[in-house]
Amino acid sequence: MTGSEQFPQFPPDFVWGVATASYQIEGAVDEDGRGPSIWDTFSHLPGKTHNGDTGDVADDHYHRYAEDFDLMAGLGVDSYRFSIAWPRIQPTGDGPANPAGLDFYDRLVDTMLAKGITPAATLYHWDLPQALEDKGGWMQRDIPQRFAEYTAIVAERLGDRVGYWITLNEPFVVTAFGYALGTHAPGHRLLAGAFPIAHHQLLGHGLAIDALRAARVSGKLGVTNAMAPVHPATDDPADHTAAHILDLLHNRTYADPLLLGRYPDDVPAVYRGADLSVIKDGDLDKISTPLDFYGLNFYNPHRVRASGPENFGHEIVEYPGVTTTAMGWPVVPEAFTELLTGLNERYGEKLPPVYITENGAAYDDKPDADGRVQDDDRIAYLDSHLRAVHAAMAAGVDVRGYFCWSFLDNFEWAEGYAKRFGLVRVDYETQERTPKASYDWFRSVIARTRDAHGE
């Protein structure tokens, strides 16, 4: 263990897991009937990703999953959060299922279960079928229904064996980076005009929950939001206004409809010029259908100051005296506690049990002469953030589990292969897997919890 104080004791039923996503690890993008996704298209456009990197091969998990699950079993995790590639199931985003795609995820789930690992399936982790994007993607009112139909197909095949179902991963990131700013697939720059993307994702979530319940799946149902506390850079009222705006854009636009059944009152003022007529009668009732759990991804908070209208009135600035990860993200673990306790205060009994569905850090770790990766910075990050989670639990937040991002180094979206988040190093030339020091540390954390409770 690291840290000057004794590592905190987590409950005996606390779920320990790791997480990945389909396009980031699978490769095999044109095998067994898989159709192209928006990330296949986007990553092949010049200048869109670091070094022109694509997910064509990634970690070749499609062919190497057995080896990966052996490593995962050695880690001792209770659960594995993976995502299902919509284009493997429906190559054009609608119509009948592709049997080979379903067979692949059948094999994954059965292999996990054989090793005592509970599957946690994410239905949408950003790889929208390109054929649906060609029809307008998430801007279109009918895409939520297409998503529900895809969900029903997957639920029928896997519904008896998946322990946790996550409808969407980080709808804020899809809206902001994929459609408002254009730095992620599909690369649109709609600014405030991207609001329909947010709403249609949330509606798709509600319809997908209906589809899962109609299929009588055995697992728990939830969604995952990326959230972050926002702090004003100074006491200037303008900076406080800027922080309020980013909090609305990043956090409350998504959490309030899901948990309270309404958008924040100031959505029209912040999303100036956006088409809010996409919100139809009954939509918010569907979006706020009760959940079994709330998935939360956290990496870092934001410190902001007032800026011009082209940036929605805010600009992100550095935290003084704070270290950063290889992504340039500030390391402020106490903000994790702040986020969790703040959720509890804002949403109260409307907040279901929370699972940390992603938390981790990228560092420029490299193997030494003996091939070992001594990633002490990552260990320190994980240690401090797990302590922050425990502090929130001690303050009354019902956190049931923690999934480390990421199990493997992988394709990190626009950053390509330049940033490494994994507990396991991947040599992208040879596909050799090497557990890092953080893998051993996380294994010891899990083992310590079990030993303390006599398991």
From TrEMBL:
Substrate binds at Q24, H125, N169, Y299, W405, E412, W413. Keywords: Carbohydrate metabolism, Cellulose degradation, Glycosidase, Hydrolase, Polysaccharide degradation. PROSITE patterns: GLYCOSYL_HYDROL_F1_1, GLYCOSYL_HYDROL_F1_2. It is an enzyme of class 3 (hydrolase). It holds the Pfam family Glyco_hydro_1. Its EC number is 3.2.1.21. It catalyses: Hydrolysis of terminal, non-reducing beta-D-glucosyl residues with release of beta-D-glucose. GO terms for biological process: cellulose catabolic process. The active site is at E170 (proton donor), E358 (nucleophile). InterPro entries: GH (IPR017853), GH_1_N_CS (IPR033132), Glyco_hydro_1 (IPR001360), Glyco_hydro_1_AS (IPR018120), Glyco_hydro_1_beta-glucosidase (IPR017736). SUPFAM superfamilies: (Trans)glycosidases. GO terms for cellular component: cytosol. GO terms for molecular function: beta-glucosidase activity. Belongs to the glycosyl hydrolase 1 family. This is Beta-glucosidase. It comes from Cryptosporangium aurantiacum.
